[in-house]
Amino acid sequence: MPTTNLPVHHHKMLRAIAIFEAVKGFAAIIASFGLLSFTHQNIRQMAALLVGYFHLDADAHYFKTLFDYTDLLNNEDLRALVLLAYGYAAVRFVESYGLWKKYAWAEWLAAVSGAIYLPIEVSHLIKHASILNILLLSTNVAVVAFMIYRLRWRRLTALRY
């Protein structure tokens, strides 16, 4: 059930997070179209062309790893990745809708789904410190913290009445 007596700053934050989640859903769908375009293609050859086009060192460790993984991908794997992207997008859209409508279940979903990524993001930041990684981690921590705050606020408000 949506909360009706919502402070203005809560309302604005929920709307901003809902939009952010919807954007992530659309990004997953767009990425899945890109993955679909690779079906029936020689992915290793395409990766080699990109590395050559940008005049990068094909013998570098990262590119050797990239080439190893491209050999493992086949059309069925790409289709599975596309289905996973669609599932991820569906969850983001459902979460976005629930946050827009101010449902408690959506706040729980946002808190839990955001918290799941925190250890991965911290580990990635430790290995590859960058401004982008700091920004991603900070944004995710802020969303999770706000959702926990909202859920506590919702509970305390319910106990008062």
Describe this structure in words.
The protein is mostly helical and 161 residues long. It is built from 6 helices and no strands. Helix 1 packs antiparallel against helix 4, helix 2 runs antiparallel to helix 3 and helix 5 runs antiparallel to helix 6. The longest helix has 30 residues. It is elongated and about 65 Å long.
Describe the structure concisely.
With 161 residues, this protein is mainly alpha-helical. It is built from six helices and no strands.
Which descriptors apply to this entry?
82% helix; 0% strand; 6 helices; 161 residues; mainly alpha
Sequence stretches where pLDDT stays below 50 over 5 or more residues: none
Which radius of gyration do the C-alpha atoms yield?
Answer: 20 Å
The outline comes out as elongated
Total DSSP E strands: 0
Largest sheet: none
Structural class: mainly alpha
Mean pLDDT: 85
Element pattern in H and E: HHHHHH
Percent of residues in β-strands: under 5%
Helix content: over 70%
Distance between the termini: 15 Å
Please specify the SSE layout and strand pairing.
Layout: H1 8-36, H2 43-53, H3 61-72, H4 75-100, H5 104-127, H6 131-160
Helix pairs in contact: 1-4, 2-3, 4-5, 5-6
